[in-house]
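Entries read sequence, tokenised fold; example below:

***
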Amino acid sequence: MDRITLNEIKDKLDFFHKMFDAVRLIDPLHKKVIECQDSDILITKEVCYHYWGDKKICDNCISMRSYQEDKSLVKMEKSQNAVFLVTAIPITTNESPAVLELLKNVTDTMFVGSGEYNKSEMLSRYVEEISNAIIKDPLTLLFNRRFVEERLPADIVESTLANRPLSLCFLDLDNFKAINDTYGHGAGDKAIKTVSEIIISNIDCDKSWAARYGGDEFLVCLNGTREEDAQLIMKKIQRDVGNLPIYSEKDSIKLSLTYGIKTMEDIPLTAAELIREADKVMYLAKQFKYHYGQN
């Protein structure tokens, strides 16, 4: 369907409120609510994800996806005490991006499968499982590329507004193809899972996150972290990976990885620019390593 405009929204708000438990406009980049009251649109300082009783950005943000894909989307989302069906519709504006969210409480009316579950508890668990299936890599349980595309732009905006650094780290497992070819894909999977577990054990997941970006590539976003501190974290991860071999049926396999870091501090960068620059630094480090015969 074609995008609707803010003027069209004003004319429909009263009607929407009759059908839904909550109606709100969201700025998906800045994570702010553009409040709708009495058919008026008021810019507020309210953080959109606080509605769900959480203090962190939604892992699978439907408004960000709706804005990026330029189409209406529907998902289930859970608060502390209820489950909602959320419809997100992109809105045409001349200023900041906007998405209309229509929220319907379906805690006691939504049935999944046989419908045999205890009120909101089982349904909330189901919503969480569905969300994780969308944004997490099934092998490592790290976030996936879709999550990166939705979350990194929001973290960049937040870091820019708060005037704090953001370090993006691009990690690549060395000789991954050789591991697969020599020892089989089972050993390759074990190597990927081992590296993932080491990454997670070395970062603060309350403010930072890690994702499997490709076959043997990982991204780590360190919010509020300057390059010198990011270097310490990456060197620790690199050292831990080197000290923890994996085992095939006959041999132990020594692992190593190469990383690159790009820190955004004074000059804002887009998500694509950050990833490209971190990848470039990683590639140069890998070339240097191989040139001097290091593993």
Q: What stands out?
A: Residues 145-291 form a domain with the Alpha-Beta Plaits fold (CATH 3.30.70.270). The longest strand covers residues 83-92. Residues 271-291 form the longest helix (21 residues).
